[in-house]
Amino acid sequence: MADTKATATGTVHHVGEIQTFGANGTTKRTLVIKTGEYQGRDKLLAVELYKDLAHGLDTKPGDDVTVDYWPPESREHNGKYYTNVRAANVMVRPAPGANQAEQFAGNDQDIPF
Fold first, then answer.
1. Domain count within the chain
2. What is the CATH number of the domain that holds 92?
3. Does residue 92 lie in a domain region?
4. What pTM did the predictor assign?
5. Cβ neighbours around 87 below 10 Å, total
6. Which pLDDT tens digit goes with each residue over 86-103?
7. Looking at the domain assignment, is residue 24 inside a domain?
8. SS3 for the chain, per residue?
9. Each residue's pLDDT tens digit, 34-86
10. Among the four residues 7, 39, 42, 45, which has the most C-beta atoms within 10 Å?
């Protein structure tokens, strides 16, 4: 089976803190996005971001994002199964109707019109 990426689009629901673990100091952060609703409940997808992707994430709840992720992997531990969805890329999309003045905040140059 080929390791092809899948894509999910939604709104950031939760951004976890950066965690460090293992002897080599691997860093990880969990990002939860809302991808829609089903029978009145939010459809949530939790993806894990590792190393540079975890540190470079600049998003907050409410932001629109597109996440590319590798096929989910499951592991058994003490009779329970755990599934890991590992992000390959996260792209923050501009919010619809975003205030353009906010995009130019901090720009002291005169606008030529």
1. 1
2. 2.40.50.140
3. yes
4. 0.77
5. 21
6. 999 999 987 665 554 444
7. yes
8. CCCCCEEEEEEEEEECCCEEECCCCEEEEEEEEEEEEECCEEEEEEEEEEHHHHHHCCCCCCCEEEEEECCCEEEEECCEEEEECEEEEEEEECCCCCCHHHHCCCCCCCCCC
9. 999 999 999 999 999 999 999 988 899 999 999 999 999 999 999 999 999 99
10. 45
